Structures are given as C-alpha cells and as structure tokens.
Input
Amino acid sequence: MRNVKMDNLKGILIVLVVVGHFLELCMGEGFSRYLYILIYFFHMPLFVYCSGYFAKCSGIGERILKKMLFPYVIFQMLYILFERFVLKNDMEMQFSKPYWILWYLVALMVWTILLPVVATDSRKKQAMLLALAVIAALAAGYDSGVGRSMSLSRIIVYFPFFLLGYDLHMWDKEREELPEEGQETGREVKTREIDVLAVKYKKVLSVLVIAALIAIALFTGIRMEAWKITWFYEASPYTDTGYDIEFRLFHLAVGTLGILGVRRFLPDKKLPVFDKLGQKTMPIYLTHGFLVKWIDMYNLFS
Output
C-alpha cells in the first residue's frame, strides 16, 4: 500500500528541484533570488528525509547495485557525452567526481551502506546517533579536505536528515502496530501515551511550528541580501565560500522544522498531479538536467 502523504511530498519536491534549477538560468537580485533561496532552504533536507524514510536494512547490496550504482554509471557517462557532443565542452570521462545532480546517487549509496551500522530500535540511541550526525555535519565545515570530491561535504551535512527519516518511519510503524489497550508491553504503553499527548497538544505544537517558521522568514528577510547562493549547496568547507557554522546550524534547524511541518500539515489524501509525480521522482531527477543544460547553452531564459 502506497504512502499517499509521501507521494504528495515527493511530487512537490521534484517540482521544486526542477524549478530551482531553471531559476539558476535567469536569477537576478529580486523575487527570483528570494524564491530560489526559499526553495533551497527546504527542498534538499526534505528529499533526504524521504530517502531515509523509505530506506531498509535488508537487501542493501542488490538495492545499491540496481537503484544507485548502475544508474550513476550510466548517467555519468550520458551527461559527460552530452557535454562533449551536444554542449561542445571538453570533459574527461571519469567517475570519481559526480556530474552536477548525480551527487545524490553517490550520497544515497553511502547513507545506505551506513544504515545497518546506525539503525537501532532504542530511542535513546537514536537521539544520540542523530546528535553525533549533527555534530559531524557542523564540524565537517572546518576541514578543508571535505568538499566536492565524491560529494563528501553534502554526504556528511545531509546525513542527519536521512537518519531522521529512517527513525521517524520506525516510530510510525510502531504506532501502526500497537495492540489494543490493556494488551501492551511497557514500551507500547509509553508509545501510546506519547501519541495521546501529541493529539492533545497538536494545536500548541502547530502554533509553535508556525511561529518558528515566521521567525525564520523574518530572519531571512533581514539577512538574505548578504547570503551567497553557494552556501545553500553545503558542498564546500566554510573558508571556501565565506560562511560559518552558525549558518549551517541555522540551515539544519530550518530543514528539521520543514520536516515537522510537513508531517503535521501535509494531507493524507491524494493531491492531483503531485501524487503521480511523487511516484516517478528519480527518473525526473536524472533526466531533467539534460533540458536545463541545453536551455542554458542557448541562453533561452536570458
């Protein structure tokens, strides 16, 4: 049975990915730049969260080979050939540096390999590992060797969202499998109590999320003129692009709020078009780059 809410979310996100890449071709200093920044605040953390939500510890080898490594090799070759023969750029055939959007496939491979090491049913261990992942993401910016090579920076920085997605899926499964009242174990009773509290205070939680997002919007409005677009890629150490640990922490916090907001407000019923797009995100993601690069070559958006 498909998860309609996640299909809706993935459909919305893939549209934002495509829109964001096309905005790069015509972005100025006005509305288009603000829209681009808004998209890049949320769309990658949410996409990584979706990948973590559907990640599994079983059948890892076959899944990596068929859904990650094989597509990476094929599309790395196709994009480099496209650069050579269509865009007329001199580009060496290599596989150690992912071509533009293909960094995500490399990241998925690494995160999936790490999953059996970090997966746990213990809430305390989940919280501890998530905290360690955040610390690693913040610390990585100080290492000049952690950059675009094999997408190492983005692999480390976005890993907390992958881990959060996997953990939240485990929580959701626990809630779905709860037995009837009176038949629960101690842990199941505690899980049900948490659910009751969540329902009881959902309006308060909603107000807090909205207030946090408003505060972020105000902060963004004050600061975004000084921000560089490259900061949002999380692909380089702090010294290379002139940003700092405070911005990265802010970015991680905004992404987390976006995830909580989506889980609270996105409807469970199908959203026309988006639910269908959400079932085909990877083919769209892998192929839209050809069109973006072709349009850029002819400056059609200039």
In short: The longest helix spans residues 60-85. The chain has a mean pLDDT of 85. The chain is about 70% helix and 0% strand. The two ends are 45 Å apart (CA to CA).
